[in-house]
Every structure is written in C-alpha cells, then in structure tokens.
Amino acid sequence: MFGLPARVIVRRRRWVLAAWATLAVLFAPRAAHVQQVLAVRGSSDQTTESHRSAMLIKEAFPSPVADYVAVVVRGPVAQRNQRFHTVLDSISAAVAHRPYVSQVITMRSIGDSALDRPDQRTTFLIAALTPDSTNDITKNYVPDLRAELARTLERLPGGTGFEVKVTGDPALDYDLRTISAEDTARGERRLVPLTLVVLVLAFGALVAALLPLAVGVLAITIALGLVTIAARFETMSVFVLNITTMVGLGVGIDYSLLIVTRFREELNRGLAPADAAVRTVQTAGSAVVTSGLTVVVGFAALLTTPLVETQSVGVGGLLVVGVAVLLATTFLPAMLAMLGRNIDQPRWLARPLSRIHAPTGWERWARWLGHRPWRAIAGGGLTIGLLTLPLTQIRIGLPASNWFPSESESGQGLNELREIGASGVIQAMRIAVRFPEGESALSAGRLSGLKALSDSLRRDPRVKEVRGVATLRPMSRLQLAMFYSDPQAARSRYPEFFNAYLSVDNRTTLVDVIPSDTVSLTGLMDGVRHIRAVIAQGVRGLTGAEIAVGGFAAASVDLQHHLLSRMPGIVALILGITAIMLFFAFRSLLVPLKAVLLNCLSVSAAFGVTVLVFQHGYGGRLFGLDGPTQAIFVIVPVLVFATVFGLSMDYEVFLLARVKEVFDKTGRNDHATMEGLSATASTITFAAAIMIAVFGVFAFSRVLAVQFIGFGLAVAVLLDATLIRMVLVPAIMHIAGRWNWWPGVRAPKLDAGDSD
After folding, report:
1. What predicted TM-score, i.e. pTM, was given to this entire model?
2. Whose CB among 105, 178, 281, 379 lies 3.0–4.6 Å from 126's, allowing a Cys bridge?
3. 566 domain residue, yes or no
4. How far is C-alpha 183 from the geometric centre of its chain's CA atoms?
5. Same-domain check for residues 383 and 341
C-alpha cells in the first residue's frame, strides 16, 4: 500500500484545516458560475471531413450561414392575415438589427415554396449569426435574442396571442447548458438530505455523518473552481458539471466513510484521538490513496481521446478525485483528531441503530460462502451472464428520440418545426464542393455533375429535398446551362440564395440535403454514410473537386468513428495500468488479474441493463423517456467504462486491504477472507448505497446523455457491491488459497490441522 506522512498531518492539523478553508473560500465563487464557461457542442482534435466542410464554408463565404437560429412564429390567425404579416415584418426587423446577426432569411429567399402555405398559423425565419459571435462560448446571444423578441411583441398592438420560440443549434446548446446546471443544483438539493440519512444509519451519530458530506461538498466546490481555470486554456464540456458533481460527491463520501469508520475502530481499541487519527491514515488512508489512483487512471485515459467532451470530463474527473483523496487523507484526519469522541454525538442515536451494525449477519454469510464457494461462483456468474446478454445488441449512434429536453423553448420550437414539415431545415446535411482554381461551379460540365449528385441523393427515401445551384428551379441539364449562361444576372435575380449557396468567385458551392421530418437522428447518421458512399463511388462531372459532407449528423459520425477507433486502446490502457498498480500495492499476481476481470464483468452487465432500458425501452418511462432511444450515444460507453472501472475498484481495494491485513497477521487465507468480508461488508454496503443514490438521481436528469451516464454508473456500482464484492471476489479467494498472495507474500506453513 502507499504510505502517507500521517504524524505530520495530525500534528499540523490546525494548519491543514486553515489551508482547506482558504481554498474553499477562494474557489466557491468560481464554482457558482462554472456553467458560464462550459461548451455544449463538442469537437475533435482530428481533422475530420465535417471539420473540412465547415472550413471550406468559412473560407469561401464572407458571411457564411454556418451557425444560425430558427425563429418559430405561431399566431392566432393564418399567415394570409395582415396582422400576421405585420408581426412577422416587425420580428424580422428586430432580429436583423441585432449586432450578432449577419442576415435574416425567409422561406421564399431560400427557395422553399412548399413551406409557404398561407393557411398555416406557424412559420419561421432563419437568423444567420456572424462568425465572430460564435467563437466565444461564454457569449451566447440566445438570451438577448429571446428578450428582444419578447419586447418586440409587447410593443406591437397586434402582438397579443403570438408565440415566438428560438431554436437551432445555438439555442439548443444554451438550453442544454442551462438545464444541466439546473438539474445539477436540483440533484444536489435532493442528495444532501438523502445522503445524510444514509450516513446517520451508517454511523449512528450525526456529527460523524456530517463529516463525509462536508468532504463531498468541498471536493465538488474546489474541483469546479479549478475547472473554471482549466477552461481558460482548453474547451470544457458541459458534461464536466454533471460528472464532477456525481463523482465528487460519490468518492468524497466513500473515502470519508472508510476513514471515519476506521477511526472509530481505533478509538474503540483504546487509542487517543491523535494516535487513532495517525493509525487511520496509515491503514485506511493508504487504501484511499490506492483506490483514488485506480479511479484517476480511468480519467487520465480519457485525455487520450479525440473528443472535447471526453477530454474535459477526464480533466474534471482528475481534479475532483485528486481533491477528494487529499481531503479524505488530510482534512478529515485533522478534523477527527480535533473532535475525538465527539464524533459519536448525539449518543442516543447509537442505541436504536446498533442492530444495523451488528456483524453477526455478515459473519454468517462469510462462513456460508467459505464452505460453498463453487456454488456462489455458479450463481453469481449466471446472473452476470444473463444481465450482459443484451449488450450483444448494442447500437452506437445518436438516439432516435428524447435527445432534446421537450420542456425547453428550443425543444418546443423544434417540435413545432416538425409539425409543419420544416425541422429538416435546421438539421440539414451540408455538402461543400470546391472546384480547382480557375473553374466555376456554373460551367456546363460542373453543373451537370452537381445535378447528377442532387438527383442521386433525392432518390433516398430519407431525403425530403436537395437544395443548391443545380436545384434552384426544376430544369434539365440543358436548361441549367442556359439559365447560368450569365452568372451575374442569375445572382442578381436571387441575391440571398446565391450569397448562401455560391461563393463570389463561383468556385465553391453548397448542396444542402434536407432530411424528411420522419427521419430520426439515428437515421440522419445513416444518411450521412449513404451520401459519403455515393460521393466515394464517383460522380461524373465532379472529378477533381474537393467534396466534404458536414453538419451536425456528419460531425457526429466523424466523432463516433474516431472515438470508437480509440476505444480498444483506452480499455487496454486502463486495464493494464490498474493491474500494475494493484500488483505493486498488494504484491500479488492473482489479485490484480481477478480484480480487472471481475470489474470488466460488472461493467459489461451494467451496459447490458442500459441497452435493455434505454435502447429497447423496457422500463424507460420510469426515467421520463417517450420511447426506446434505439441507439446509445457514443460517449456513454467510454465515459461509463473509464469512470466506473476505477470507482468500483474502490470496494475491491477496501475489501482486499482488510483481508491482507489479517492475512499478514495470521497467515490463514480462509480466516482472513471471512474476517475481511465481515469487517468491510457494512462499510461497502453503505458506501455503495450512497454512490447508487448519487448516480441514480442523475438518471432522472432531463438531459439524455446525463441520464445514460447516471443510470449506467448506478447499475455498475450496484452489481459491483453485491454480486462482485460480496459473492464472486471472496468465493474466488477461498478457492485460490495461498495463491492469492503469490509471489509477494508467502504465509508460513500451517500444521496439518490448520487448513486454509
């Protein structure tokens, strides 16, 4: 195990407490506003095709419609009514005058006459944002735009009864960020009293129960404060907020639970408070450091991934786990040394709760397990196998439903666009085509190629419309050549359209593929793959052109491909480093191999249950889902594996540390296993209950990706603390005997009558 300067920590306890108090005061204000520096949309450190598409658009168009919002207008009267026209014109003018809006595009200007139905009561405008306004994630202009629209309606005499909603990627980003912050705050409010109740049951004392809670809250506060500093140098995803809260509260309380439990044991053995604190740091503190390092390995592995989401979660995880370990091994022992026996206050709680902590039940279970290890392995293994079975049907991709919170303004706006058959406009797949220098997209040969590509894509049932210079009007190839024989005249006839779809030098053009409203996000990703396959096969007339498919779905395909390609390396890195660390910690070959294998089983079973509930929809309504998601977001397996592998290893370390401690004293493996299980079972059970509560609260979040992660982590911890640590681990240790500790520790040979 890893040693700590226990006596220095306890002797300098007042300085230790003062240092942590200072850090808390410094970082609390930063932590309170952390959501303002977090990004929602991720990116990759790879040069992807979707990234090349965005760069082509940015380079070729002086005011590219690369980032935009849709302003959905629903009125009490039909569009043909003059009142509707007045409101629409006023809204258009108000939006156009905002400094971050480069242009306002109407349905007619983008050539979508199919949506221009005067009898409808809902329409929309597209407000293209200036490139400068989208570079700084801390300056989201959606709140200002919404406020301006509200003021415009209030000023209009005929504005009563009209509803205006802002949607599109920037609005969805802003709403997701806001909802994530609200859910995190709400989760903390729910968790604190629930966690306090569990801790009171665990300790039978209010003072002892408050200490782990204080460590968890401090760990989150300081870590989020550090995240705001890290955000100055690297983009930090909004997932950091949820993951840091979940992990910080979970590990902070877990580690503190172990420390406080061991301190009380040492007090009950007659040690003075300072000596008991020193002994606690030397034993339980070393276990906490070992456990924390195994968790850190998983988060460190995320730094090797190509996604901003996973990289920033890796940074946040490293910070919060590191802070939690330091708090548990310095701040907490210092507090315990000062409190001494006062941690048992009020004493009247201990009497009614004493039965909960009676070890007789766990001792009976440990003895039963010691006599029937093969039966325990068969039952536990069969259960894990059945739960893992749905994992064989996992589908990675963007979920088909429940992706955007339905109660958010942007989510409601997206639904209204879908009702009028226009949601595909803001989910378009954008094909950027750049021809060699000196060539024009409006030449007869190139127009023929663009039309061939458009016609081929239009035949896909997932495609509603293909929009570009070759599809401005329904024309044959000959008619197209004649129509564009005078490019300048065509541009002056449709200026807004050509500014959006053709560069000034006519060399770069865009082809927007508008999906059908029935196509899900999962279907959009399949659509991107189909488009790229068509282009890869070659299109006559486009030879030599640089073609890149972009848009939200294309970026998701690229990110998924790069992340999945890194996944085997991430898994191997986590497994290898964890096994090596456990080998040095326990001087054993079998212990780390067994720990790694069983952890993989618990994570696989957790994924299987996640697929069953979310992808297939069994019981999904309990978590507020409208139906099966049909796919699992790509970052979920990566984040859950990297996070839970180390977290669940906590219980392995807690159990094995006590078993090895007894084994070193007695040399009897069976006795050490039984005593270690009996001594730690209560602590592991309560620690797991708290961790499950922490993760379980986030399984009810309004953000689907957070639900995925919270549910997966809760199930993994539940399985790990029950089937793995209470059944399979001790059963295997009974069967392995002295081989558990080979080659580092060799117990003395026992007499014939003393069997292992």
Report:
1. 0.79
2. 105
3. no
4. 14
5. no
